[in-house]
Amino acid sequence: MSRRRRNTAHQLALRADMEQRLESLAPLSSEHRELLSTDGFIRYYRRMCDLYPTQVEAYERLEEYYQNIFGSRRYADIRSLHLAISRRRRKEFL
Question: Which of 4, 61, 84, 86 has a Cα-to-Cα distance from 17 of 20 to 30 A?
């Protein structure tokens, strides 16, 4: 038998308000969802590497876009991204 916590009227009102806010959020576009995923970020990075003189410039530009959209960086630095890429490769070959 599980014990359920009783919510006060105030908590129920806050819960209703929170649920209403969440329901009113617009769904993310497919591009946003792709950029949020590790594989999608890596795909964008690889495409951008062909468009910039160096990998570092491509990476930093992509991070700028990511930060403008989502409010934070995806990776701490390019080495972190390269580690994620290596992990993906290892995972594919296992």
Answer: 4
